[in-house]
Amino acid sequence: MSTNNNKKNNNSKKVVTSTTSTSTSSSEGYQRGSNVEFRSLHKERQQQLKRKEREVEQQSEGLDIDQTDKRISKVKKLEKAAQIVSSRIKEKGTRSRFDVDDQDNILLDDKQLLRTKKSDRYQNPDTLKKKRELKKKEKMSAADHNKGDSDDKKKDDLTDEQDAEADKLIPFLPKTVKSFSTRLYSSDIYAGMVLLGAFEMVTDSFIVVSLPFGIRGYVKFNEISDEFTKWSNSVMKDNIKYKSNFQKTDSILERIKTMFIKGHLLKVAVMGISDMKKKGLLCTLRPEVINKESNIGNFTEGMNIYGSVQSVQDKGYIISFGSGFEHKGFLKFEDTKFYWPTTTSNVDASTATETTLSVGQPLECNILTISESPKIVSVSVSHFLVSRATTKDSTAITAQSIKAGMLVEGTISAVYDNGLQVRFLEFFAGDIHQFHVDRPLTDFQEGRTLKARIISVDHEKKRIHLSLLSHCLGLRPFPFNTLKIGDIFHKDIIVKKVDTHEILLSLPDEFSKVKGLLHNTQTENNKESLKGKFNVGSELHVPCRVKHVDYLDAMVTLTTKKKEIGKTIYSYYDLQPGQILDGTIKFVRDDSIEIKITDNIFGVVPMHNLGETMILKPRERFNAGQSLRFRILKVVPEKKRLVLTLKPSLVHSTLPILSSKAACKVGEIAQGFISRIEDERIHVTFFGDVHGIVDRSQMSRTPITMISEHFQIGQVVTTKTLQVNPKGLFLTLIIDNADYQQYLNSIQNNKNQPEVKDEENEEEEEEEEESEEESEEEEKVEVKKEEPIKNNSKKTTPPPTKQQQNNNNKNTAKINTKSNYN
């Protein structure tokens, strides 16, 4: 063992002597100066190196070769540190006149060395401090020296978490120079991706949301929030307060109506492909999904945070940010005064009232204070604070916590033909597509600062998309005014930009702020390229029809196909109560059937409207694919809700359609069905969701003891209006034959009366030529001949004959015929 140790010591000595020999040989090249101070300094340097050799030899006794090599490596590190100091001296202007390759490259020529000796080594306090620290390190033991190196490394290097976060941030910085601005496609979206959306409409089973670049999302009612799901489940189980599933659905829809309005901007998270639409996405509004990968450390005072109302307390609301947050939010009642969308910006603070929020309602909140004990975050839903909250603290934002909906300050780094590229929050870069710029791109220059709102973050492809549209920046609905699906434009459509597969258009002056998009698949020749066929600035000379309204992009999708433009029923807006249509059965359920009218229009027939009497088992009477003729009872275009009836007495009724309470007059006779029975009255529903009440005294000339014995739900009755009240109509079932005939005669007389013309129209007609007047009179005669046919297809029909009246009376209940025609 002793021989082995001696060999190791000898080897270590050889290594050390080799290093010193190289240093002394190289230093001899500098011993040519005649200055005494230089030589003494050089001699002092040699003595220091020899002392290092002796210290290493003493410490290496009794140690193995590996430990000796570590000691030698420490010496080399000290020498390397000396080289770094010399390089810094050179950067300050004390560069040597000689370029000598030397391991100890700290020694300079004579004059330069004297100058350095006087200026830096003795006059610079920082240098003296470093020298003292160097001596302390030389005296440290091996263990202490290793510990000191590790401490220095901890100060300079990043932690493992910071290093991993830095790796995530790096891909968001552009590595290559692009020549265009990217956009988001449906193929780029994945589960868990958070997007900025706009509330479009609510149907009987889901919420429709407009997503960036024309993509649509569907949110089921159980994906709004956990609290809302609990409440809606309790409603569906309550058979006492709600008599039917339609009443339960109406209650849920009314709650949603108070929570959102059309164009409401909100955050949504993608869950997968929807089974309801071919290209739709199934989304969620639940805070635990949207706030995933975020914690309270990613938020500071003044930033926005997404949550939902968990409960109502004495002084405010408890806000939940998701299961991943230990903190809870508290919203005071007084901080709801300026909540949008129920309040506007011109409301005076003294007259503003508190907004009542619903349990489970999603909210975008602004952080006022953050408390760790207790873990409470004070928030406000004031639209002034929420819409102006700008994310500025880059230290609090990580690659995973950056979300759609954030307002950031950025600098334009590039201007492309189809958009902009901006840098923000030091580490991030994103694209602003031309669809989300409301001004010409020529108005922007590189280096200009601006504010933009993030609309999507793609963590897989490391892409961020932002918007400069005013309604996105202000978190307000875009004003489409009267523009709706199905509208047709015949002129003033100007081409703004032409690409291979799509054209960007501008609409007439009334909708000048709305962009129009025409894809090549919506043209007659859908496989051909659009470039070369249209010129920028020219007018589109073919009619265009609005196919879809995008509430986030402030854009409408257009079509020029003749088949689409020629459709008489294109959307729910083309339907009206009382209209007779044909369709086919799509689904047969236990309590209703669903009917397909067109590829995009569907209606529901409730159980009490499947026939003259209640049909308890619809599956035994109807089959999918069966063709039927029906009449529209109620249509709500905004919700895409259509209620139909198959009752023969209503479908083939010859009486005028009562579809508006405002247009109803005293003495008007109409047909409806019983929708509710009480102890002292019955409720009658007409077309257009018009309701009336019939008291017990107005049901029959003979006394009725038990109403339920003479009437049933769904029964068709003929009524006469006694009084028009803001809450409804007061009706009677007691109608004399004389009253009935007098009412029909008054309808016929109103049709035969000539139309009353305005004075302005009469003056214009007098100025026209006689030949034009004669042609107009001939046209009026032809129109009068066609009027009965038009009325049959819309609302009214010719008066019934006596035979038709008798047949109609047979279809009603016995008590009805007795009370009406005694």
UniProtKB/TrEMBL annotation:
The S1 motif domain covers 192-286, 302-382, 405-469, 578-647, 667-734
Which Pfam families does the UniProt entry name for this protein? S1, S1_RRP5
Q: Which InterPro entries match?
A: NA-bd_OB-fold, Rrp5, Rrp5_S1, S1_domain
UniProt feature, compositional bias: Acidic residues: 757-780
GO biological process, alphabetically ordered: rRNA processing
Q: Where does this protein have coiled-coil stretches?
A: none
Gene Ontology, cellular component aspect: small-subunit processome
The record's region (Disordered) falls at 1-82, 118-160, 747-822
Biased-composition ranges for Basic and acidic residues?
39-57, 67-80, 135-157
Give the Low complexity compositional bias ranges.
Answer: 1-27, 790-822
Q: Name one GO molecular function term.
A: RNA binding
Q: What is this protein called?
A: S1 motif domain-containing protein
